[in-house]
Design goal:
Blueprint: H1 2-15, E1 19-20, H2 21-28, H3 33-50, E2 54-59, E3 62-67, H4 72-75, H5 86-98, E4 101-102, H6 103-110, H7 114-123, E5 127-132, E6 135-140, H8 142-147, H9 152-160, E7 169-170, E8 176-177
Antiparallel strand pairs: 1-3, 2-3, 4-6, 5-6, 7-8
Helix pairs in contact: 1-3, 5-7
Length: 178
């Protein structure tokens, strides 16, 4: 089992993102999903017992090797690329400010590129979407609040401290307006 743990650990370290058990199975060459889940649980216990800077996070059927929150400050200045590019971060900020918000409103504010941003945010489980008429309603998930270490009922008051009118939006002809 140790060799399989090492394979899983190497893949999780390299990808740096949440990865599903099925994809992980293919990448490390372990056919039995049950065995792979046992391996992941065992690896998670190993990380908990090490009391080190890394932890193994489980989210449903997806796993990620991550830096523990109390050590993030050491790496922030080293990480120039995050999981989210700047335009996607800006779209997430608008969704967070207006939560819940219709997808059509986000597209009006951020432009057609926001469809890709929303897709990414849903894949990362920062937002959920539910059908509502001809559009969808976007809502923040508990993962968003955990990941950004924000308390749900305090988010709006913190964001109101910023100049929301300064958020760049796109007009129908593609020009930015303030």
């Amino acid at each position: 089992m140790q060799e399989d743990k090492n394979k899983v650990e190497a893949i999780l370290f390299t990808t740096g993102r949440f990865i599903g058990v099925e994809e992980l199975s293919k990448l490390c060459g372990v056919a039995s999903l049950g065995y792979l889940k046992e391996t992941l649980q065992s690896l998670k216990v190993d990380y908990e017992n090490r009391n080190g800077a890394l932890e193994l996070l489980e989210q449903g059927d997806k796993w990620k090797l991550n830096i523990r929150k109390n050590y993030l400050y050491l790496t922030e200045s080293l990480l120039s690329d995050s999981e989210l590019d700047r335009p996607t971060q800006e779209t997430l900020a608008v969704v967070a400010y207006k939560n819940p918000v219709s997808q059509s409103e986000i597209i009006k504010i951020r432009g057609n590129g926001a469809y890709d941003h929303i897709k990414t945010l849903k894949e990362l489980d920062f937002v959920t979407s539910e059908p509502m008429g001809r559009t969808r309603i976007l809502k923040l998930t508990s993962k968003f609040y955990d990941y950004f270490d924000v308390v749900e009922n305090q988010l709006r008051s913190k964001m109101q401290a910023f100049n929301v009118d300064g958020v760049q939006s796109k007009t129908d002809d593609g020009d930015n307006k303030k």
